[in-house]
Amino acid sequence: MAAKKLCETFSKSLIDDVQRWGCMKQTGVSLRYMMEFGSEPSDRNLLISAQFLHKELPIRIARRAIELETLPYGLSEKPAVLKVRDWYLDSFRDLRSFSEIKNTSDEKEFTQMIKAIKVRHNNVVPMMALGVQQLKKGMDSTIVYEDLDEIHQFLDRFYMSRIGIRMLIGQHVELHNPDPPLHCVGYIHTKMSPLEIARNASEDARAICMREYGSAPDVNIYGDPSFTFPYVPTHLHLMVFELVKNSLRAVQEHFVDSDKVAPPIRIIVADGIEDVTIKVSDEGGGIPRSGLSKIFTYLYSTARNPLDEDSDLGTADSVTMAGYGYGLPISRLYARYFGGDLQIISMEGYGTDAYLHLSRLGDSQEPLP
């Protein structure tokens, strides 16, 4: 069905072109390079950046489009996955039909187009989650979802690639900002305070906890308030928000029937030579060891999925305390994208510590799945 629909919707020449570009070599960029290159967004640099993206983005998008066609267990045929595939093919076609970028006016036009591509792909994560859900609905209940390793590995590659594509587009678009915030080079903040981001992310997570439970544990943050390093604030906010949200929920539910005051969540920011590490500690009862391997899979959530067949995808961004089970695996990908990592250590019966490692050197190349 997927193949038939593909030929109906897209021309054979486009499909052949996707195959050809999907075989080309991708080119990774480091945080440091993005920062140094973007620190002087002259017309010439913007032109070079646009010419690079004009060649690089179709390669990355074609690879994902090809993979979306060949997923195991019939996942490729699910309506939500077909929709995502169509978004990727539309974007590939837009990029390939854009002629050579020779001057500033071409570059400006190209920038508007890739901006539109980024918007087109806004709902890819909830839409893929819906596809996985459609698959689970029709699956034999004897299959253990955590064993569907192939799908998990595909989603890791797919979302990692998406982070890279969105970073490259967002960085290029943001370099056009005539009035950039102080110390900002595109998406990168050259003097980002991890403490300040942790504070903002914690406040956002507490607000959601308040809305859902009527109260929220305190969050205490420790570290040097004057310490800064170059990083992407939106990425760090997303990761810390996710970790704090999980901790708040665990503590809130662990102490729901208790007379005791819910203990605070502690965040410690440590600046090492290689890494900046942010530890988020809670006393929310912990995770059993048998459950630890599941927390990074996309096919497992302890919560009801707010995005189901009948929900309006326009509201897919509304955040709940539980989410649809993608927060941790996607946070780990964001950490790994710039050479960091995310580890979870738990003591069942007591609580959980999450260690978020961020590489402070910024030299590591993007992972290119």
UniProtKB/TrEMBL annotation:
Q: Which GO terms describe its biological process?
A: regulation of glucose metabolic process
Keyword Amino-acid biosynthesis: yes or no?
A: no
- How is this protein situated with respect to the membrane? Multi-pass membrane protein
Query: Which GO MF terms does the UniProt record name?
Result: ATP binding; pyruvate dehydrogenase (acetyl-transferring) kinase activity
The record, for PROSITE patterns, names: HIS_KIN (PS50109)
Q: Where in the cell is it found?
A: Endoplasmic reticulum membrane; Mitochondrion matrix
The protein's predominant localisation is endoplasmic reticulum
Q: Which Pfam families match?
A: BCDHK_Adom3, HATPase_c
Its signal peptide is none
User: Known EC number(s)?
Assistant: 2.7.11.-
**InterPro entries in UniProt:** AK/P_DHK_N_sf, BCDHK/PDK_N, BCKD/PDK, HATPase_C_sf, HATPase_dom, His_kinase_dom, Sig_transdc_His_kin-like_C
Q: Which reaction does it catalyse?
A: L-seryl-[pyruvate dehydrogenase E1 alpha subunit] + ATP = O-phospho-L-seryl-[pyruvate dehydrogenase E1 alpha subunit] + ADP + H(+)
Please indicate if the UniProt record lists Mitochondrion as a keyword.
yes
The protein's enzyme class:
transferase
Q: Where is the Histidine kinase domain?
A: 233-362
Highest taxon of the lineage:
Eukaryota
Query: Could you tell me the keywords of this UniProt record?
Result: ATP-binding, Endoplasmic reticulum, Kinase, Mitochondrion, Nucleotide-binding, Transferase
Can you list the GO cellular component terms from the UniProt entry? endoplasmic reticulum membrane; mitochondrial matrix
Task: Return the similarity comment.
Answer: Belongs to the PDK/BCKDK protein kinase family.
Provide the protein name. Answer: Protein-serine/threonine kinase
Q: Which organism is it from?
A: Carpinus fangiana
